[in-house]
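Researcher: Final request for today, and then I'll write up notes for the group meeting. The sequence and the SMILES for glutathione follow.
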Amino acid sequence: MLRSIGRLSPFAARGAAAAAAAAAGTALCFADRPASCEAPKLELKYFDGKGLAEQSRILMALSGVEYTNTRWKMDMAQPYGKRCPTFVEAQGNGSIYMALDRAPVLIADGVAFGQSKSIERYLARRVGLYGANELEAAQIDSFGEHLRDLKDLHGKAGTDTEAADFKAKVLPAWLAKLERVAGDTKGCVVGNGLSLADVQLYYFVCEHFPARDAYMKGPNAKLSGDGSGDPVATLLRECPKLAASVVAIRDHPRVKAHVAGRQYTAPW
Ligand SMILES: N[C@@H](CCC(=O)N[C@@H](CS)C(=O)NCC(=O)O)C(=O)O
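Model: Predicted protein-glutathione complex:
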């Protein structure tokens, strides 16, 4: 029997839809539901760049739920510490202390909190992209933590030799293991519907991995992905389940609109 985890959990109500999707073998998007009449009560505050907020923004774009996406403009011509006066002001006026005077910050129904991963998970629960039940929610967390470990390994591959080894050996081996972890419903990695895990996988494959060296080593660094082509085709050749999930996010009309519309003033 499904048990509720309080007011955050509309899981039980989705059981029938999930069962139907399982029978059809196609991913659902639980976010594709009638819009709520409630006024938006979510504000995400972050620098005007991808950084630690972009997965939340993509998640929100996928959901179609309205929110306030506050982007603090950056002037990269200024020295470090003076590039974002709005952030300095927010630190000074006490409005982001719940994030220890850092960013991102989410203000949900008037309550502010920080930590990008907590924000992603809260938003995913709130907009219906956190699985059909508590066990799926745990699997989504687990998938995200696998990706976080992979990102950490990538981050530690500092020299050119280590980066080449990561790309040639570590990454393919990890992706093959993640392919085994992914569920059987085509187009999503957990359960029968798109979730935060699919967003995190898309972000790693299409945005984080290809761009990370440019971020870490400056704009003239060569890209760590295969700059010549589509990362889905190059990285996920042998991983059809992961590829279907990434394509489902990448080609979702609301995600495409979000990606096409962002023109960040920060390069990262
Ligand atoms: N673990 C935190 C890290 C937050 C963090 O370090 N934010 C950086 C920006 S990416 C920041 O606000 N740096 C400015 C500062 O520390 O003054 C998270 O994931 O949200």
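Model: The first strand starts at residue 42 and ends at 47. Residues 51-52, 102-104, 114-116 surround glutathione (CB under 6 Å).
Researcher: Thanks, that's everything.
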